[in-house]
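Run log, item B.
One chain of 810 residues. Sequence copied directly from the ordering sheet:
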Amino acid sequence: METMKLFNHNSFHLQKDQPKLQLFSTVPLYYKNVSFLTKPSYCIYSNSQTQFTPLENPSQKPQNKVGFSSNKLIMEFTEHGLFEDAIRVYVRMLEDGFQVQDFNFFPRLIKSFGGLSDVKRSKQIHGHVLKIGFLADIYVVNALLGMYFKCGEIRDAVQVFEKMSERDSVSWNSMISGFYQSEDYLGSLMIFSLMVKEHGLFPNRVGCLSALSSCASIKSWILGREIHGFVLKNGLESDEFLVSGLIEMYMKCGDVRNAEHVFNSTVNKESVRMNTVIWNVMITGYVSNECLSKAHELFVEMLEFGIKPDSSTLVAALVLCSELLDLNLGKQIHRLILASGIENDTRIQTALIEMYFKCCHPESGLKIFRRSRNDNLVMWGAVILNSAQGDQPFTALELFCNFMLKYGFPDSQMLLAVLRSCSSLALKSKGTEIHCLAVKTGSISDFYVGSALVDMYGKFGDMESAQNIFSRLHCRDLVAWNALISGYSQNERVDEALAAFCDMQREGIRPNPVTIACILSICAHLSVRILCKEAHCFLTRQGWKSNVLVNNSLIAAYAKCGDINYSRIIFENMHERNQVSWNSIISALGMHGDVDKMFVYFEKMKQAGMKPDHVTFTSLLSACSHAGRVDMGCKFFQSMVEEYKLRPQVEHYTCMVDLLGRAGYLGQAYDLIMDMPCEPDDRIWGSLLGSCRSHGDEKLAKVVADHIFKLDATSIGYHVLLANIFEDLGKANEVAKVRSGIRDMGLRKQPGCSWIEIDNDIHIFVAGDCIHHQSEDIYAVIESLTLEIKRAGYVPQLPLRSLMTDEADF
């Protein structure tokens, strides 16, 4: 018969299909699902055999041999975590007629019940020992405390503790560690305080460690210092476990100085110096407190002392490399891992994958993942999440599909990663599938997943779906509100965005810098300076003037509202600047046509050690185009490719085509489009078509228009532009043909709209309307200005009102 493998092959074997036990509070005890009318099979364990031997009559069994051997077996099973087997031995003993009053190993047996984490069975053993009168034994009651905590039944543990007629240090320490393991950190510290202050008992190492860990979990620096004082007073400062616990507590509370003091006061002792755990806790603490250089120095010092790093050390070192973005150091640690022979450790592999991804070397990370066994869910989550965050959304989706085929349903972290990938790739159909999967797995109730769905639909432009999901969220936190406001902002639904911002504050949710960045982008879109200043004042009151994200948004917002001077003031007053800061001020200056100052700031950016990126060169090339600086534009384009090794994207080619076209180099602009390594879009052809109108090139205009209409035949803007070209050249028949085609396709031009802010009042104008209360005065001024420019030599092609009427028809 097939048997179940136990920890010792020389012991007995139990049948694999043997049913689990159910221990009742009455004696004798029976197996679950076994009829009470069935005669129990009496048996006895014999060292000379490998299984229980049935007996014909219970009177044949040697009582002492049964008790001694079985008690020893229960101890061994419990120590090796074979809890079901330990309980099974006890039940067999009772079936064999063993007198329960002679059993002296109830604490071990109760520990087995706790190891199963089965509340129902745990209460059965409690009732059993209660009935036979063993609750007077303090060791038994202490074991019950531990059992209930392992089952997560804090209330039952407290009741047992309160009813104890006698308590020893084990009782109190069990309560301290039990509350900590149950994540009731304040309860753990309260018991610690009662034990010491009111009962005069001293916690042991386990109690002190649990109390220190509780302080670390709630970041209670004051209580942690009190426990540190208790440890010193009782001469426990040399205990290696307590030293590491103290260091971890101080590090998690952000008190690096005291953590260093504890470390330095003990590391000189030979017995403690070689303890790898203490070094690991220090290195990890330095990394978590962003003391990266100190973490690096300590890691090197550890190696110089000859202390062999373990897997935890190397994981901490790899996290350090990820934070430093130091690929060279990461590769050195990778070689150390290979030399140590622990490259197959799952934690090590996961940390290596994250390090390579964050150091912009995803190929190596994927290579490690594909060489691994791929059977660890944490590793799958890490590689999918890092692929999504590392601008490899297609890879993230591919890995996610492979995971689904291999394991089935994902966790919420994986769903968040693939939702992000769908958003960046604008894959609405795939995003909808992930939405359905989230509903099916129940992850839709996770408010992080719900917020990600709101954000995804907002990026798709489907604000109705985003609103529906948002309204169904049980917990609408700041992340969810930011996702909704950002969606409104990105889709230019200004009124809804501002209304959501007000509703959020009415619900008691305070905005953060991300929220304000969204509001500032709305201000920039509206070009309303007063609204921008209101947001700026709000930021000042909140104390966010030094926030980099906020300042970057303010630079862009003021520039788009026409106040370039304030943009420069904000930039100059920034204590910290990142890549976006420099790009924002360069773009702002280019937008306002201050090309010379833009070039100065570009040089300052390089001197500050910032490497220009694609966004930087887009701003530079666009400014050169509008300023007619052909030589500088060509120089920047060449520098982008040759010096900075950046591959030009469509927007860079569009700027260059616009630059050459405006300067009259239409042939070169056309050749540049045809030589592009990427597919040209309608915008780049549209830029060249506009240049054809400026320089009256009818032949090239027709060629360019053919390219445009193959990409987008329904774009009325390009049809109107082509009609205007023919009109400029006096081709009335061609104009009529184009306009006839527009009408046949049912196209209609959106009327032009503009607005201006005067004395904090916004005035809106639509082409051809006369709604404004000062419209007669406005048109009179326009007529006057038209006469002035005619005197200056400008001859308009059509009367102003006639032109506006024609455009309004479309």
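Observations after the first pass:
- The radius of gyration is 38 Å.
- The first strand starts at residue 3 and ends at 4.
Flagged for discussion on Thursday.
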